[in-house]
Amino acid sequence: MAATVEELYRNYGILADEKEDLSKHKDAYQVILDGVKGGPKEKRLAAQFIPKFFSSFPELADAAINAQLDLCEDEDVSIRRQAIKELPRFASGENLPRVADILTQLLQTDDSAEFNQVNTALISIFKIDAKGTMGGLFSQILQGEDIVRERAIKFLCTKLKMMPDDTMTKEVEDYIFIETKKVLEDVTGEEFVLLMRILSGLKSMQTVSGRQQLVELVVEQAFLEQALNPADTDSVDRLLQCTRQALPLFSVSETTATKNVHSTRFVTYFCEFVLPNLSLLTSPVAELDIQLEVLKLLAEMSPYCGDMDKLEVNLNMLFEKLLEFMPLPPEDENGENAANEEPKLQFSYVECLLFSFHQLGKKLPDFLIDKISAEKLKDFKIRLQYFARGLQVYIRQLRVALQGKTGDALKTEENKIKVVALKITNNINVLIKDLFHNPPSYKSTVTLSWKPVQKTEAAAIGQKRQSGEDIGATATTKKLPTNLPRRDARQIYNPPSGKYSATIGNFSYEQRGGFRGGRGRGFGGRGNRSRGRIY
């Protein structure tokens, strides 16, 4: 039987006035619990009164929590908000994980004010018992409905980094890592990105051993033990995504080999399975130059490559692929250059391949001397020389075009393209000079063109002639100043936009596949949709 407003106030008074033993007024508390069966006024009062005396009636704990939960699901949004606001008062002892579980389920609300209320409540109990709150969150991530799972992961991704250090203890971080590994057994691409973001933000993951653990997780998701099917967009998609997640984790130390997190397995995989199929790769995004994206990733990883079992074989694959993009000089019947047949110089591809070859070549410096035939070396130098001649002409044209331009003048779309083109050509020029040394040298250092640019560098480009070491490179051809595709003007790498443009930067896998386990939207449909995962 529902309690009236008057009955609620009367029994509230009984409990409030009791100074010694509240437990003897169990009937009064039961009347307050019955308030959830009344009208809106009774429910609002019950939402406030139930948590106030909750701790005094442990034998009615389940009934009280269930009564408050009923109010959290009420049709009246104001009643729901009041009930949610009071939920943290139930979060004590063994009840806390249950309250966290309830709040996590309530993240599915579409009411923004209510959603914010749930977030606030979760944060408050997180500060009471972080590990217990995590138990409730991960319970729903592993077993809850899709919308709940998605929002719980995003809650962790956005809120964990805001938690104070005394809350995020090593024990809590270890628990997060263990539970996240369980979740990674069955994730979508978008979830994978978010979960890696969560893990990489943990203090314990900032060490060399921590980053190595993260790389191992990415390796598992990347399926590096399997050959790549270049025609399968999901497989290509997954490889791009995993490699991009692994890149920030790699490191190299000149003095201590044990303090390195190497990219060797990824570089090896690219050389063995990706480069041979480069022209066959199917792009997951229509606007994406998939070959260029792959070559960029390889170039970025190559400085972090450690000892490689098949170094000569992989270096030879890089060398052969580089030859494909470095044409021989065109000749007419008399052996003279035929200008009307001049090949297109694909500077962007060459920058990536030349940089990767230069990095791996350091590990086998006699490759161009002893590992290839004299005829092939001669052919390579002819290609290098032809490419270098084209570079010099192009560099001069670009420097003249940018002469004297500073500040806003360099920010026009046309000049941005020219600045990037100058970086590309200067990079290639420096690397070619190294390879022309006898014996070939691998000492020069360049900054890849799509990597962050120093402001002083950009300001100086139009003022004076610069050496190749001062310039950093992206996609362009010999006709670049007039018809360069806009995406190639990127100075800092941004994942492709368009089809993937939702919540994960510019790279959303909302409609794409999952990784291990499939989750029904999987890359290749591995596994079936399941809510029976173990918690």
Automatic annotation (TrEMBL):
Keywords: Apoptosis, Nucleus, Repeat. Residues 516-527 have a biased composition (Gly residues). The keyword DNA-binding does not apply. Pfam families: API5. The keyword Cytoplasm does not apply. One of its GO terms (molecular function) is RNA binding. Belongs to the API5 family. This is Apoptosis inhibitor 5-B-like isoform X1. It comes from Carassius auratus.
